[in-house]
Structure formats: C-alpha cells, structure tokens
C-alpha cells in the first residue's frame, strides 16, 4: 500500500473519515463512559463506524483511541489497560479499512504542563505506550490531534517518531480571535505550529475541530504561506455548534460541506475529512467532489 505521503506526492487529494465521538454517542455511549472501553465490550459497534466511513469513500479511517493515553484513562480508573485498548482499536479499524489507510488517533492527555499537573517525562511515556500499541495493532500512521498546547503536541510527535516506524500527522485546534486571527486555546497560531513541529519531523500537519470547513480555509492559507511543501490535513466540524434544548447540534449539511471542498483544495489542502457532527454522508459528498477532479 505504501505511505500516505507517497500517494500525496503523486498529486492525489485524499479523503479522511468523519466524527467518531458523536457517532459513538448515537450508538449508545453515555456521557461519562469511557469510549475506548468499547473496543473491548462493543467491538462490532466500533467496527461498524470505521466500516461506514470506508464504504462512504474514505481513503483512511481513524481508530477509537482518541483518549487512549494512560493519563487520560486514569479518569476512569483504566490506565493499566491503555495498551490493550489501543491495540484493539487499531485491529478493529485495520479490519474495517481493507486496503485503505488506518490512522492511530492520539488526543490530549487533559493535563496542563505549564500548571505542573504532570511532567514532560510522564506525558512522553504515556504517549509512548499508546503509539507502540497502535503500531502493534496495525495502523499505517499516527495522528496526534486536537492539540492546543505546542509542548504537548511536540511530546506526542516525538514519542511517535522515536518509538514507531509510522508516518506522523499532527493537527491542532484553532478558534478565530477578535482580531480575526486564528489561535489555539493556549495562544498558538498555525504559523507557530508549522515552525515548531515541522523540524520535529512531522510528516503531515493541519487542523481539526473548532471550525466548519469554511473557517478552515483561512487556516490552510496561513499554513501554506509559511510552508509550501508540507502536506496539510483538515478535519472540519459540520459547521459551528448550536445549543438547542440542552443538546448540541452541528448544522452543516453534507451538501453544504461539499460546497467548500474546491475552495479548500485551492487553498492547498491535501487530505480532507470531518470532525464533530460529520457523518458518513458528509464523507460521501466530499469524496464525490474529490473523485470528480
């Protein structure tokens, strides 16, 4: 199958998958329950999510391991099962993906380094255990995602580069500030992300969550303005969340999302997928536009 970057170097635009969290909740995951435990106790449901995206036309699917670091799992008293959960997550998506790529999802630990809640060594070791298990389970790449703190992102990338043979993707989450610029919750700009993480050896960089696909266009433009060659991945939400009757809704329809695909490709994106609120139908519509290129 080769590497993801090999496909991109051939000029391909690739389609990634959509939301996992909202999909799991629609299948019965209750607030406060551990999503990664489903890899063991509800294997078929997790498999169905990955398979749904593959059948919708995604060239790659993620793993149900976003909160799979031992530090994050400690919240549920399950930190000792980190390797088990991550290896299972990878194996499930590997089975569902067939000849497509599998991205091993690594999310934030939930701890703030600058507050001294945890040491850099503890963060690194936690990510190290996670990425080794994901590789053992069969992933093609590690995707460090939804990061807001540059140092935590760097530690996760370092852990993946030093302890696996897989390509490493890193995405951060940005919101538009009052001055019209995009920043992460910890004040990091897309430019700073690129300048700090590309030298760490990240193979693909980008943004996820925090914005609908229209908002991502400016972020891709900024990344391209400071680096012409690094491949860019975007996982956009289905629009900006709307709170109604105590429930969060993501209002963007699959057709509306697909309407921005050409604009974000023109901005310089290489891989397009979805985050919160996106469904297999969103991915199907994105894939349809990409396939018509």
What is the topological layout?
Blueprint: H1 4-9, E1 14-15, H2 21-26, H3 38-41, H4 43-55, E2 60-62, H5 70-73, H6 82-97, E3 101-106, H7 120-137, E4 141-147, H8 150-163, E5 167-172, E6 175-176, E7 182-183, H9 190-197, E8 204-212, H10 213-226, E9 232-237, E10 242-244, E11 247-249, H11 254-258, H12 261-267, E12 271-274, H13 280-291
Parallel strand pairs: 1-12, 2-3, 3-4, 4-5, 5-8, 8-9, 9-12
Antiparallel strand pairs: 6-7, 10-11
Helix pairs in contact: 4-6, 6-7, 7-8, 9-10, 10-12
Summarize the structure.
With 293 residues, the protein is an alpha/beta fold.
Question: Can you walk through the features of this model?
Answer:
This protein is globular. The protein has a single domain, classed as TIM Barrel (Alpha-Beta Barrel). 43% of the residues lie in helices and 18% in strands. The strands form three sheets. It has an eight-stranded parallel beta sheet. The longest helix is centred in the middle third of the chain and has 18 residues. The chain starts with a helix and ends with a helix. It is of the alpha/beta class and 293 residues long.
Number of strands: 12
Tell me the strand order in the biggest sheet: 1-12-9-8-5-4-3-2
* Uncertain residue ranges: none
- The average pLDDT is 97
Q: Which CATH architecture would you pick?
A: Alpha-Beta Barrel
* Topology-level CATH name: TIM Barrel
Strand proportion: 15-25%
End-to-end CA span: 22 Å
**CATH level 1 name:** Alpha Beta
What structural category characterises the helix and strand content?
A: alpha/beta
């Amino acid at each position: 199958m080769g590497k993801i970057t090999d496909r991109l170097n051939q000029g391909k635009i690739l389609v990634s998958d959509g939301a996992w969290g909202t999909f799991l909740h629609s299948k019965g995951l209750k607030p406060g329950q551990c999503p990664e435990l489903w890899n063991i106790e509800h294997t078929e449901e997790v498999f169905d999510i990955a398979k749904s995206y593959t059948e919708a036309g995604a060239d790659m699917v993620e793993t149900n391991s976003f909160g799979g670091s031992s530090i994050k799992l400690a919240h549920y008293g399950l930190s000792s099962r980190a390797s088990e959960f991550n290896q299972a997550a990878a194996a499930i998506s590997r089975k569902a993906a067939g000849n497509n790529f599998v991205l091993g999802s690594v999310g934030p630990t939930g701890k703030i380094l600058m507050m001294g809640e945890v040491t850099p060594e503890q963060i690194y070791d936690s990510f190290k255990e996670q990425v080794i298990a994901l590789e053992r389970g069969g992933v093609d790449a590690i995707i460090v995602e939804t990061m807001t703190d540059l140092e935590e992102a760097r530690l996760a990338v370092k852990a993946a580069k030093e302890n696996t043979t897989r390509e490493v993707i890193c995405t951060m989450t940005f919101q538009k500030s009052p001055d019209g610029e995009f920043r992460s919750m910890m004040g990091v700009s897309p430019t700073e992300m690129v300048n700090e993480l590309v030298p760490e050896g990240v193979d693909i960089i980008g943004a996820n969550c925090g914005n609908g696909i229209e908002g991502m266009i400016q972020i891709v433009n900024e990344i391209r303005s400071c680096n012409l060659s690094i491949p860019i991945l975007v996982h956009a939400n289905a629009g900006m969340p709307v709170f109604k009757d105590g429930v969060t809704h993501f209002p963007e329809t699959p057709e509306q999302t697909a309407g921005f695909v050409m604009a974000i490709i023109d901005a310089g994106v290489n891989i397009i997928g979805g985050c919160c609120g996106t469904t297999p139908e969103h991915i199907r519509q994105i894939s349809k536009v990409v396939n018509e290129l």
